[in-house]
Every structure is written in structure tokens, then in C-alpha cells.
Amino acid sequence: MQLGMIGLGRMGGNMTARLEQAGHDVKTFDPNVPSTAGSLGELRDQLDKPRAFWMMVRAGQITDDTFHTLLDLADRGDTIVDGGNSNFHDSQRRYATANERGVHFVDAGVSGGVWGLKEGYCLMVGGDDEPVSRLEPIFTALAPENGYAHVGPSGAGHFVKMVHNGIEYGLMQAYAEGFEVMQHSEFDLDLEQIAGIWRYGSVVRSWLLELLYDAFAQEGSALENIRGYVEDSGEGRWTIQEAINEDVPVPVITAALFARFASRQDESFAAKVNAALRNQFGGHAVRTAKDA
Predict the structure, then answer these.
(1) Helices (H), 104-250
(2) What pLDDT was estimated at residue 288?
(3) How far apart, in whole angstroms, are the C-alpha atoms of residue 8 and residue 117?
(4) Which strand (E) or helix (H) includes residue 41?
(5) Pick from 166, 175, 254, 164: which is nearest to 208 by CA?
(6) Which residue of the set 20, 119, 136, 168 is catalytic?
(7) How high is the pLDDT of residue 292?
(8) Would you give the DSSP letter of residue 285?
């Protein structure tokens, strides 16, 4: 099957390679790396009708700009797939806009990271039945066995991926806190060894634990060369916002997001306020900048 891939970064490049290994004809465009096309217009001309364009670019303005450019280039019956981490509300809006022009829009939540080329990508797809069914050979080639599902109508794919990433935040934070307790304990524990044995038979075994074991093996149990500064790409925030809209409590995901915020502070102003208050009402000693 033929596909136009837009964006050849860590995900898009490996997805293209996996599709080509499966025998699909992938035309590409990325202004930053060698591609089959030098522009989106040239990419369109390299594809047979009905065309399928797959956007694999960062969520935000670049996705919106790429979408509208493609919409102006596409013919009725063509399909635009957004495989990035877009907000599902944006995907629903783009679906409605594309539908007015007779162009299909499909939102595909993609999980797999840098391991996807070898292991496959879990795909959570939202959109109308006709374009999703037509593109199923692409989805099944990208996914491992049983790793693809058409989860619902427009927006459902990115909604499910959003919640997936929110859960990921909580899982990662639980591992992080547990290993910190062990790292500070009175015992001289080999964290690499413990992560290693937990991979077998333990109720907390998971792929994330396997990756943590690999990190300890590469960096050492103290992770001395890694700074504890953790970014977030937005999906955890969106999950919490939707939970608030639905009156659903998500304390674990919320705490995990806030822990990421705290990781970026050189020093907490809130902690300074706490220290100042203890000093004011109880005369408790404070540490000054000179004590650092």
C-alpha cells in the first residue's frame, strides 16, 4: 500500500522503515532530512489517488499548519492521518474541517518510542470506518500482533493515547519513588540487581522496569550522569483536565505530574515560605544561603 509520511524524526523515520520492511511504498517529506519529496505539493504528486498522508510532527502550531496545507492540496476522498500527540479536541476540530472538504481525517495514537521499529507500535485509531478500514494494512504493519485497534469515532484515538500517557506518568513515578526509598535505606542495595530480579515473576514486572534495569546497567545504580530534570509533553496535563471535566478523581496521575514540575526547580519557593513560617511562629532555625 502507498503512504505519504510527513516528519522523519525518531518516530516517523522508524515507522517509515518498518512500513518499507513490510513491503509498503512510502513517499516522504521532511525539510530537515533527505526525503523523496522536496515539498508537500511534490509529495502529493508522488501519491496515487485516493491518497493517504500521515503527519508525524510535534503537537501544536506545526501540526495545524501542516494539516491546513495538506487540506488545500488534497482531493476529495484523500485521507489525512495525524499520528502525533495532538489534543483530541483539536483532532475533532480538524475532522470537522476536513469533512467539509470531502477529505477524511483519522487520529492515530501511537506508542512505542525508539523501540517501535523492532517491536512494533501500539496503535489506537479514531475515525470513520471507511478510511480506517482502507488504511488497515498500514496499521497492522506498524503494530505488533494484537497491538492495533479502531477504538472509536473522531478524537477517540488521541483521547485513549492521552489517558495512556497519563497512566505512564503514574507508573514511572511509582518506580521512581520506590527506588529512591531503597537508595536512601540503611542497606547497601544493588538497585540494578533488584530491578533485574523484579523482571521475573514479580507482580510489578513490566517493560518500564526492563528499561529501568537497562538504564542502571548503562549508567550505574546511582545514575550519576543523569540530572533529575523531567519534562512533560502535555498529555498528563490534558488527562487531568479531562478528569476534572468528568468529576473523576485522578490523584496518582496528578501527583506524578506535580513531581515533574518539582524536578525542574533549583530550589522550591514554597519550601522557603514553609521555612520562614516555621521560624516566625515557632522560632525554628532556618538554613540561609550561606549554609548551602
Answers:
(1) 116-119, 129-134, 136-142, 156-183, 191-198, 207-219, 235-245
(2) 83
(3) 13
(4) helix 40-46
(5) 175
(6) 168
(7) 60
(8) -
- Helix (H) / strand (E) element for 19: namely helix 10-21
Least confident of 88-92, 172-176, 264-268: 264-268
Query: What is the CB neighbour count within 10 angstroms for residue 207?
Result: 11
For residue 256, give every residue at least 6 positions away whose Cβ sits within 8 Å of its Cβ, in sequence order, or none.
169, 170, 172, 173, 236
What is the rounded distance in angstroms from the CA atom of residue 8 to the CA atom of residue 1? 19
Residue 216's pLDDT is 94
Say yes or no to pLDDT of 269 above 90: no
242 is catalytic: no
Per-residue pLDDT at 287: 86
> Could you tell me which of 71, 73, 65 has the C-alpha nearest to residue 7?
65
- The question of whether 168 is a catalytic residue gets the answer yes
Spatial CA neighbour of 162 closest among 274, 80, 245, 74: 245
DSSP string, 191-207: HHHHHHHHTSS-TT--H
